[in-house]
Amino acid sequence: MSAVVAIPASEIHRVAIIDDDYIQAQTTGLNVEEANFEPFIIRADSRFERMEDLLTKLLETGSQAVLCDNRLTPQGYAAFNGAGFLALLYDQKVMPSVLITTYVDMDADESIRRWRHKIPVLLDRDSAANPEVLKRGVFESARELRGEVSVERKPHRTLIRVTNVDKETKEPILDVIIPSWNPKRAVRFPLSLIKQEIQADVQLGTRLFAQVNIGAEDPQELYFKDFELAPEPDSNDGLT
């Protein structure tokens, strides 16, 4: 595999566009041009069943970065979502990437949160229409893949408290409070983010430690990983 992650941001010229809606991809291409990049729209001759096949197609384009829509399944482009695909690129340090979605309010807590620690930049469709925001997102992603992690993205071992367990959804969803981030605002994520051996112990009131980027300003930017059960609360710690 020929990774391009180590190249300076100034050498990013071609940006690939992955989107199941070709009209939308063309609009993104115009924004990419306005940002002084060369756009390359990846068309699907048939549905991409495996992420590895789309990765091969991406590498063939000679691009140095990629913009990817999150919902790739509605029009049969792929059998997976964009967040999962960009997580693969992140793990393999293939190239800088930006995730774009029209449904940020609907997807941020579940399908995207699952992979958020491997997605340096998430833009809603309106923000992605701004060439300067788009360019900044590409460069921010490039810096993180080179190890220059921003304050907003750095993880910290953090105490969280479960305030609700929603089992009425397709998979159980947790609402949690992160006192060191914002003690008055709950955040959601799938129970499946927590390792299976402790999932049965997670219920209303459970306290956990996790790696969380508490420097994030917006809840959609928060990620959670490396969970562990926390000791029973001390009545004097102010967190009960």
Describe the protein.
By secondary structure, the protein is of the alpha/beta class. It has two domains: 9-149, 3-Layer(aba) Sandwich (Rossmann fold), CATH 3.40.50; 152-229, OB fold (Dihydrolipoamide Acetyltransferase, E2P), CATH 2.40.50. The chain has helices at residues 22-34, 51-60, 82-91, 104-112, 125-128, 131-145, 196-199, and strands at residues 14-18, 38-41, 65-69, 97-101, 122-124, 156-166, 173-178, 182-190, 207-212, 224-229. Strands 2-1-3-4-5 form a five-stranded parallel sheet, sandwiched between helices. The mean pLDDT is 93.
Q: Spell the H/E element sequence.
A: EHEHEHEHEHHEEEHEE
**Beta-strand level of the residues, as a percent range?**
25-35%
As a whole number of angstroms, the C-alpha radius of gyration is 19 Å
In which order are the strands of the major sheet placed?
A: 2-1-3-4-5
Structural class: alpha/beta
Span between termini: 50 Å
Mean pLDDT: 93
- CATH topology name of the largest domain: Rossmann fold
What shape does the CA trace take?
globular
Low-confidence stretches: none
CATH architecture of the largest domain: 3-Layer(aba) Sandwich
Q: Kindly provide the name of the CATH class of the largest domain.
A: Alpha Beta
CATH superfamily of the largest domain: Response regulator
Seen as an oligomer or otherwise, the chain set is single chain
How many beta strands in the DSSP annotation?
Answer: 10
Determine the number of helices (DSSP H or I, runs of at least 4 residues): 7
Largest sheet: 5 strands, parallel
Number of spatially distinct domains = 2
> How much helix, percentage-wise, in residues?
25-40%
